[in-house]
Amino acid sequence: MLPFFNGILSTSAFNSKKNPVILTSMDDNSDMNFELCVICKTSRGLCGRKSCPLLQNWSKQYSIEQPKIQNLDETFSPPSFFVGWTGYPRINAGPMLTVNRVASDVIDNSRNWLEKSQEDIVKMRISLMRTHAKINVKRPLDSDIVQKSQELLLGKKAIDVEVQLERKIIPRISLDERMAPHGPIVPIKTMDITENQSPINAIEKSFYDTDLLATDAVSYMGKEKLDENTITRVFSAGMIGRKDNRKLVPTRWSITAVDDILSKQNVEKVKLLSELGEFRVFTYSFFGNRFVIILIPDVWSYEMIETWFRGAFMNPSDKDIAVEDWEGYNGRTDYASNITGAYYAARLGVTEYLLKIKRQSQAIVLREISDEYRFPLGVWVIRLAVREAMKRKYKVFDSIDSAFEVAEKMFDYPLKHWKYRSKLYDLSKSQTKLDYFLQVS
Amino acid sequence: MAFQMVLEDAKLMSNIVSIISSIVAESRINVEEDGIRIKAFDATRISMIDFFMKKEAFQKYEAKDADPIGLSLETLNTILKTAKANEQLRMSFDDTTKRFIVEFIGQNQQRKFALSVIDIPEEGNIPDSIHIEFDTNFEIKASFIQQVLKDAEMVSDYLKIRAKEEGIFFGAESDTKEMDTFIEPQSEEMETGSFLVSGESEAMYSLDFLSNFLRGIRSSDYVRMSFNKEQPIRLVYEIEDKGHLIYFVAPRIEESEEIED
What we know:
Chain A is α+β, with helices and mostly antiparallel strands. Chain A is built from 16 helices and 12 strands.
């Protein structure tokens, strides 16, 4: 069992020794503590409600022209697949469908969305309809829908399918912090595939190898240059792993599982590389998400700090809230429960860069979320932004304090608070190394 | 040249390797004529472990001109964890297969593991020892210090130690929490004769590092602790009369720079 599943399901709240920093304080008249939202990130039910009011609001507030389809006469699967997480282990899952023949590389591969606007992405994604059938995650193959979906997911080509739906389609947008947006949800009765999928070799091999561990299959597909969206779909649809262990994994968990597995493997490789000899700072803004990434000459260690301004979509409170998670050289043993999915998505981008330059270092990812980022588009935003940041020109510094000054220019949130929150900054300033005392004596 | 050694109590080695492997994942092991030795920095070079077990500790010890071998201590640890109470441990090097052999010898039965060695370059700059004249020395029961660490971990990532002639203060603090523990030299959990404190010293060390070493030590055993202000702490665990585990941890030194709002 992957460690973060325990993390997600457990309700052990803040494991940080610092409480979220609250810059302004006002009387809190409401009966609901909205400050918890930044930590809960829609998924842990910390406010005690059955369903997340933020999730419902986002989808309601977003005004965009909805596609007027009531029935799917002719339909295609990109191919894509969605596994819900409410009611686990009896969840809703099914293929995602479109009325046009759009390949998954267009509509379901976030690597290709850099040039699009936030609206473009939502418009494109709401044409993706999410069908669902009730399925027990542990017995996916009992469902004919799952069996046929797995056949679709062997490749990336849009495939002609015939479906019978339980009812008419009601226009709707679904927005989520972890997953990319999608359109209406409709129960599915039957599906028939009327065209052959062209399988991708790496997926096929992983699918038919029932002795290969799921983590090894993920890393194998990563090595074969499959994008993480494709790997996530296959992971989520219970297509990899040892035969008896194959089960459906909710899409939002799969996204983070794949980021975690791929980046953890990168970390092991990074640790074998020689240390970077300088401080490097990268900056980038994407959809109102401002990033400053600081590399510190030392052995591997990683930290992410997020600041959600009041009014940013995840922070309905009247206070600016910062949260952080970090790991030392030996990694984490628990789930990064303050930052959640973004922690792993950013770690993937950072480790890819370190492998590219063949160096190891400490890495701090600072993210400031302004209200320009209007609605959550999914954790791919962070993965893509970190990758983009690290493709760009960086600045070189000779001390941690001069490196941190970039944050002062880039961010609204004051520098001293970033420093205060940063565990790696603190370690760098205060934790000595034995070498220092060897030279002295 | 190959070597072999037989230890009466497999569990003893299992306990030692579990401590070392929590500090260094892989290391060179030196099998020398007078005994077996592991000396290594952890990856961050904040701490250093120094293990020695003399040949007299073993039933059988044969080593002559044996080259150091590199091993994954994490793997060795998982193997040694399977040791049972009345099993002997035999460790040797097979020259033909170039593998490290671990055998558990019970009554009328044997279990054997072969482990491939890994290439670990000699780490430069490992001192024979770190020579510091310590102002503070005391010997404390492992169970006591283990409780201190547990208490402190609830509060902070660092342990503050303050030594005075009347006793030792352990403390931890964060924005919202504080803990304090005080122990006098006369305490039953302190080796009174070993208590040597000149003047007053205070220093701070990472709880993660201290715990990695201390949590694995048998709770009824004693640990010698020595430190100075703003200098490394030295923890010495005498393994009966068989050898020692010594651990150095570099201090945390805080600049007096307050964050103002």
